[in-house]
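Input for the complex:
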Amino acid sequence: MDIVAIITAAATVAGVGLFVGIFLGVAGKALAVETNETEEKIRACLPSNNCGGCGFASCDAYAKELAAGNAPVNACVVGGAPVSRELAELLGTEVGESVRLVAHLKCSGDCAAAPKKAEYTGVKDCRLAMFSPSKNGKGCIFGCMGFGSCAEVCPQNAITVVNGIAHIDRELCVGCGACARMCPNSLIEVVEYDAFTVVDCSSPDKLKTVRESCSAGCIGCGVCAKLCPEKAITMEKNLPVIDRSLCSGCGACWGKCPTKAIKRFGAKAVS
Amino acid sequence: MKTVLLVLFSTILVNNVVLSRFLGLCPFLGVSKQIKTAGGMGLAVIFVITVSSALSSAIYHLLLVPFDLTYLSTLVFILIIAALVQFIEIFLKKFSKGLYKALGVFLPLITTNCAVLGVALTNVQNGLNVWMSTLTGFGTALGFAFAIVIMASIRESLDLSKVPKAFRGMPITLLTAGLMAMAFFGFSGINIG
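Predicted:
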């Protein structure tokens, strides 16, 4: 047994290792990044959906702003009340009001109400279908194309395509707004879970033009606006715009709408 | 100049480390979902492989050969490579948090990436001096970056296509890699004097 060889080998490897270790130690100190311990604790409370519903780019961004004191504790829609409470405890602040939000699709033109006038043979993606002049072949180019791009981004799997248009499950939805940001036709709005009235149409066309394409669309007659006792509805671009702070849910508009385009939130669509 | 071009041509195209020698497949398949991340990964690999080839070759010729310790090559090379990657991690964490987050776990995985050690060892095997080792390492890494960016471009396009359900995800990626390897096989017949 050649002791010298063993010692040389061991010494060489140890020497290289030592040099490497010292180099890394120095580099580690010189290029150290400060991590905020509070920020790490906050981040651990968040659900990691990275949906952007809180208004910040990601859960990491929200944690950073919270740690800096620039964000409300109740902004996380996915985590809801339990997460708000945890965060409030961690930061030593009050919880504040949190309103439950859900997404709503402003279109009820499904296969029965808005039959196809043309056949679309392109890639079945809502964003790509926007390049086609007649979108997905329905008469109305402003409506839901039903290819499910919104369903793909929903972190809660709350959206399914039923009868050719997207259907958002009100109970599963947490109101993060990912679908609203995705929809190329801007058909999805995020409203309060307890909202009384919604408009299931986004077509700026009126009367005959709408009727030719869809039996459930808003024809822009304005009866709802005229009838509203709280004066909560104004007509803009042949569509009713509801001021939810004024709407009392009396239902006057629901009854009088000739196409049932304005309806009670949570009611099933009538074609 | 001619040698430089020759070495680069052969390491990037003829003997592409990923597509012809099948080294470094883990980051190739793992970090090629987006062109931006793939580009970042490619740059990190270029840095690691070039510097580690240079350092490994230097230590081989200055330390291991004079003391007849060439049997320690693998051990010593791995120490150097691991240290380099750690250093890059520290560096990126400080200067490019976005890239650091995007590369995630794949950055330390470059350490165990057989491409890095493979290049260092083949340089020694082929008896190259420090300059040639560095050049070969640089060319190899450029080949890796080239392959991973092409793969990312194809994968980004695949994302928008209608892939049969059974093939979605890894299966179609592996098939694509295989087709790319076959395409690069066309370079293998090129023999420059």
